Amino acid sequence: MMLTRARLRLIGLWLLVWLCQSGGIVLAADKKLVYLALFRGVTAAEQGFMDYLQAQPNHNIEFHIADAETDAERVQGFVADIRLHRPDLIYTFGTTVTLAIAGAMSKVDNLAYIHDIPIVFNIVADPVGAKLISTMNASSGRNLTGTSHLVPTATQVNAVTELGDFHHVGVLFNAAEKNSLLQVDKLTEIIDQGEVNLSLSKFPIDGDLDPALELTRAINEAKQQGVDILYLPSDSFLIAHADSLAKAAMTAQLPVFSATDGPVEKGYALAGLVSKYYLVGQFAGYKAWQVLRGSPVSEVPIETLSRFNTVVNMKVAEQLDYYPPVNVLLNATLYR
């Protein structure tokens, strides 16, 4: 019996369906657009995020990167740009960008923010304090999920005491950055409880003035007031000008303890207790993949990594002629 063209097409279609159902053919997924709203360029966090998504089987993801280049005014234009592109998912870096796009919990009905596209935030030090969510390790009930990179403040304070015989901490922070203000408040609360033998002095930085001069002024004031170690929070302004901070701190012979890995790795700080940006980015990528695969973003919990790394820069230790205790070095990642 001769097969007509119609029957051949029907048989071919049947074979295609059978192969797909049996796993013999994997069809390419629909292309997904992921919009990355950044504050200071692509960091290791974004690299980890993109690497994770691109490593998933059958992925078909296009990334659109929007960078504010540390200009808070540029962040205000992200919402309009997002509405123009209509991405399948939005990734936001940091507290400033996330609040500008998602809004706080009290803004869930405010049309100035994005409420109809899933948002995965990353590198937000205190999502609860920023009022993005009500509690950690739970789902938000709104159109966002995400990860926090910051080691709990009490754990960091204990790490400072283990680093050496330090008693007077000076914290530098950008007075205009909400993320930094939240960290300073938490640091103040922990030290004021009196459970550790530390005192705290605060040195706000005016971001509108010359960064090098401002940092030199603040660090000189810290030295004059008897500070014996500086604390560097997760502050985008200070991290962007960490080279100036490092020069001033080295001149004053003041060690710097950092809440994030970058300043230690690059030789701007002596030590820190950190969550690696790349790993936090991978964790955020895992959450984004859940959402892109169909999980409701409102049900994906907001979490932080449970393992932290002590990091020490040995070149900085040599320049300061100060080396942390052996028990700290034995368990630390050492940069040389």
Summarize the structure.
This protein has 336 residues and is α/β, with parallel strands linked by helices.
3D structure, described in words:
The N and C termini lie far apart (79 Å). The chain has a 7-stranded mixed beta sheet, with helices on both faces. It has a 6-stranded parallel beta sheet with strand order 2-1-3-4-5-11, with helices on both faces. It has helices at 5-22, 44-54, 72-75, 78-85, 94-102, 153-163, 178-192, 211-224, 236-240, 242-251, 262-265, 277-292, 314-320, 326-330, and strands at 32-38, 61-67, 89-93, 119-122, 144-148, 168-174, 199-205, 229-232, 256-258, 271-274, 303-304, 309-313, 333-335. Helix 2 packs across helix 12 and helix 8 (211-224) runs parallel beside helix 10 (242-251). It folds into 2 domains: 32-149 and 276-304, Response regulator (Rossmann fold, 3-Layer(aba) Sandwich); 153-274 and 309-335, Rossmann fold, CATH 3.40.50.2300. The protein is of the alpha/beta class and 336 residues long. The protein has 14 helices and 13 strands. The longest helix is centred in the first third of the chain and has 18 residues, at 5-22.
